[in-house]
Design goal:
Blueprint (H helix, E strand, L loop, with lengths): L1 H5 L14 E7 L8 E3 L3 E7 L9 E6 L14 E2 L6 E2 L3 E5 L9 E8 L13 E4 L3 E4 L1
Parallel strand pairs: 2-10
Antiparallel strand pairs: 1-3, 3-7, 4-5, 4-8, 6-7, 8-9, 8-10
Length: 137
């Protein structure tokens, strides 16, 4: 058997890095996913590999420009500081942070060291952004 194991050849080796996907952002109060969130409302983000956990992880609201691009200057970001209602691989539920300017477009910046349902903390942080949304009064 040892001889057979020595003759094994690996034809191809690849690694697919884990990714976070966003399917929808819903204003829970209105039960609508239309790109508009009411100030102070509860929000649901649905997708895959969403669970937030580990050091330096969290969710932030980052202002975006007319092209939907956010600035890397995190001093303008508003962090979601209240405890999540739900924090699973498929669904995040939380309250929109206070102090967001109405009629301004934002995106959520998600940072996590978790992937899937595992409680294992990754060495590198995964970051993703959502499509932009507008905050209204």
């Amino acid at each position: 058997m040892y001889d057979a194991a020595q003759k094994i050849e690996i034809a191809e080796s690849s690694y697919a890095a884990p990714t976070v996907t966003i399917d929808s952002i819903t204003d829970i109060t209105r039960n609508v996913s239309d790109g508009v969130l009411k100030s102070g409302t509860s929000v649901s983000i649905r997708g895959n590999n969403l669970r937030i956990g580990g050091t330096e992880s969290g969710i932030w609201c980052a202002p975006v420009d007319d092209e939907g691009k956010f600035t890397d200057d995190a001093s303008n970001w508003k962090e979601v500081t209240q405890e999540f209602f739900m924090n699973t691989s498929k669904n995040l539920m939380f309250t929109l942070p206070e102090g967001l300017e109405t009629e301004t477009k934002y995106c959520f910046v998600l940072k996590t060291r978790c992937i899937g349902y595992s409680k294992h903390e990754r060495k590198c942080i995964l970051q993703t952004t959502t499509p932009s949304f507008k905050v209204v009064a």
